[in-house]
Specification:
This protein is of the alpha/beta class. Helices cover 42% and strands 14% of the residues. Strands 2-1-3-4 form a four-stranded parallel β-sheet. Helix 1 crosses helix 5 and helix 2 crosses helix 5. The chain is globular, with a radius of gyration of 14 Å.
């Protein structure tokens, strides 16, 4: 029996969807197949890689990918992590796909001194981790 496929979507597949992908692979890869993508591919954000490494999850080999319609329609769960992706997600033709929106601020838009920007990345990372833990514990 195949594992449920969880497809995390964001605008650029550079930060939030990559963090969610990394955490679910680390915390639930025995239960789920995990993918992530964006409406566009903005490249993997180095700050996201850094804060995930601090949390013990290596996403440095992830790639920034554009949404694949086939993956979208064979997913068990499609989870958008930003409002833009939620509003502009391609049409899901498979009525069995469960679509949720978990909104998180975009840490890539943080401004100010580097320590404040990194603090925003850590805050978003920790919020995503908490939501992933809840998802895994509830056995969605």
């Amino acid at each position: 029996m195949s594992k449920p496929l969880v497809y995390f979507l964001c605008t650029g597949n550079s930060c939030r969807s990559q963090m969610a992908d990394g955490f679910l692979k680390a915390l639930g890869s025995d239960k789920y197949e995990v993918r992530s993508a964006g409406l566009e591919a903005h490249g993997l954000n180095p700050r996201a890689v850094q804060v995930m490494k601090e949390a013990g999850v290596d996403i440095s080999q992830h790639t920034s990918d554009v949404i694949d319609p086939e993956t979208l329609n064979r997913s068990t769960y499609v989870i958008t992590l930003c409002g833009h992706a939620d509003e502009h997600c391609p049409v899901i033709s498979n009525r069995d796909v469960i679509k949720w929106h978990w909104g998180f601020d975009d840490p890539a838009k943080a401004t100010g001194p580097e320590e404040e920007i990194m603090a925003q990345f850590r805050t978003v990372r920790d919020s995503i981790k908490d939501r992933i833990l809840k998802f895994v514990q509830e056995g969605q």
